[in-house]
Design brief:
This protein has about 500 residues and is α/β, with parallel strands linked by helices. The chain is built from 16 helices and 13 strands. The strands form 3 sheets. Strands 5-6-4-7-8-3-9-12-13 form a 9-stranded mixed β-sheet, with helices on both faces. Strands 1-2 form a two-stranded antiparallel sheet. Helix 4 packs antiparallel against helix 12. It binds adenosine-5'-triphosphate and magnesium ion. Magnesium ion binds next to helix 2.
């Protein structure tokens, strides 16, 4: 009996304990889970906080360009093929913050392409040194070769003939090349395409096509210029024999047949005068050979070309450099090519026809366009307002340094955007009360009270005046395709990339 009652009490305690444990667990478990969830969220929050708004994720792609900030963070242009614009006044740090960094990384990442070096030899040296260093560090199957063109330091220049028949695949190529030459020789012709300009371009186009068809062994700019500098009777009669050329210059031939000397002098004289500018012997020398192919992003023979200009002689050299760039871009902008870079420092010192469409068309062909200039107004002056808008909107990654033009500063300020600011305000309010007695006598008393409150107002994140005071290397940055948690628009101080020490100039 005793045993039976002991067993009964044991069972009672056991089940009661079990029930209690179950009840406790059902209360404690969700509480534990909530605690755990909260902990995880806190950890995640902590991690994302340490990942400040500038720091990129570790994800690396083979084409990315990265720039280090002075607080040791990295800003990455994840998709350079969406184009990059760098704007900053003289001395704002464009070259030593971006150009040098991009050139070194492009060489490391096996890019090929063009670097336009307005202040030869700074970027040419940079590119050459980077390629030399890459050769020492790695042995690549199709290593990128280095070539350079400049007209001042001829022993350090290669030679290239941009009007070789292999680059003139169709009559429209001839037109584009003629446009590049005329627009650079006569800058006012870029935005004023009147009858005279169209006739000058058509005459040069016809001459280019005539040489391609009839004198292919001498099809180069110096020979074509000499041909057009000769007696108009002679070259018009010769081109008349060729049906396509005859078609192109039909209006000039009509004027010639009608002996309309004024019209002839207007077209031929204007072109001849302009072509005088590029009759320099150093230009003839550089354009007289073919040391390399302008098909620079050919995967079988990739090459980097540094094109050197001289600020003091840019009127003479820019038309030829623009022609070389135009031809190279035509060859590069094709399917199935190696990824390439087109870096144009002080880009508005060249006029390149259809440049405004290059970032959009080159994106799928892996051409990374880097357009650098001192001010947006320079793009406006060279390309006109409509093309300027297209150029800017087609360059999705943008960096703006110190500028001194109010319009540009306002543009940058608008781009960076506005924020809501909590404003504190104080005010004095007064109320007057009147009390009237029996016989129209009354008294007035005024109460003054101090009011204090807050309201929200929209203000620019970056005032235009602040942009005037940017330090060297400080840039408002707009980056396309960033991770969601990173701000696409911000201001950062970037580290300077000092130029390579030049070792030798041997080609
Ligand atoms: N990120 C930087 N931080 C600090 N100093 C810099 C930075 N970048 C460049 N500098 C310094 O600023 C000066 C001008 O630099 P840089 O030549 O790159 O300017 P720039 O904008 O290319 O000028 P320009 O339009 O005349 O070519 C140089 O003395 C350079 O050392
Ligand atoms: Mg510079």
């Amino acid at each position: 009996m005793l045993l039976l009652s002991l067993f009964f009490y044991f069972q009672l305690f056991f089940f009661a304990g079990l029930a209690l444990a179950l009840i406790n667990f059902s209360i404690v478990f969700p509480f534990l889970m909530r605690l755990l969830g909260k902990g995880c969220r806190l950890i995640r929050k902590g991690l994302s906080k340490s990942n400040s708004s500038l720091t990129e994720p570790a994800k690396e792609n083979p084409f990315v360009f990265r720039f280090e900030t002075t607080d040791d963070k990295w800003v990455s242009v994840q998709n350079p093929f969406r184009g990059t614009l760098v704007v900053g006044g003289a001395g704002s740090g464009k070259t030593e913050t971006y150009a040098n960094a991009i050139i070194r990384q492009a060489v490391d990442k096996n890019y090929c392409g063009i670097v336009y070096d307005f202040k030869y030899p700074a970027l040419t040296n940079e590119l050459q040194a980077a390629i030399e260093a890459a050769k020492i560090n790695t042995v690549k199957k199709n290593e990128v070769k280095f070539f350079t063109i400049n007209f001042e330091d001829l022993k350090n220049s290669n030679r290239v003939n941009p009007l070789h028949p292999r680059y003139i695949k169709s009559i429209s190529h001839a037109e584009e090349y003629a446009t590049a030459i005329v627009n650079n020789l006569i800058p006012e012709s870029i935005q004023r395409t009147d009858f005279w300009v169209r006739s000058s371009i058509a005459l040069l186009q016809a001459a280019i096509w005539y040489f391609r068809e009839e004198r292919s062994e001498n099809c180069d700019l110096p020979h074509i210029v000499r041909f057009l500098q000769s007696d108009p009777k002679e070259f018009l009669e010769l081109m008349r024999q060729h049906p396509i050329c005859q078609n192109l210059i039909s209006s000039i031939l009509t004027a010639y047949d009608r002996k309309a000397d004024n019209q002839l002098a207007g077209t031929i004289g204007t072109l001849q005068l302009a072509l005088n500018k590029i009759c320099a012997p150093e230009i003839s020398y550089v354009l007289s050979g073919n040391d390399f192919d302008l098909n620079l992003n050919n995967p079988e023979a990739p090459a980097f070309l540094a094109l050197g200009n001289t600020p003091g002689l840019m009127d003479t050299f820019s038309p030829v450099l623009s022609l070389i760039t135009t031809v190279a871009l035509k060859m590069m902008n094709e399917e199935g090519k190696q990824h390439s870079l087109v870096l144009l420092d002080e880009a508005p010192t060249l006029y390149i026809p259809k440049l405004e469409t290059l970032p959009a068309t080159g994106r799928s062909r892996k051409i990374a366009v880097v357009f650098m200039c001192q001010d947006i107004s320079q793009i406006n002056d060279k390309y006109g307002n409509t093309k300027k808008e297209t150029i800017i909107s087609n360059l999705a990654n943008q960096f703006y340094g110190r500028v001194s033009n109010l319009q540009t500063a306002e543009y940058i300020s608008k781009l960076v955007g506005r924020k809501d600011v909590r404003m504190e305000n104080f005010g004095i309010s007064s109320t007057t009360s009147h009390s009237y007695g029996r016989r129209n006598s009354g008294t007035a008393s005024t109460n003054e009270s101090l009011s204090h409150g807050y309201n929200w107002q929209e203000r620019p994140v970056l005032k235009p005046q602040a942009i005037f005071g940017f330090k060297q290397g400080q840039f408002a940055s707009l980056i396309a395709e960033r991770e969601d948690h990173l701000s696409p628009v911000f201001v950062a101080n970037y580290k300077r990339i000092p130029p390579f020490k030049k070792q030798s100039t041997v080609l």
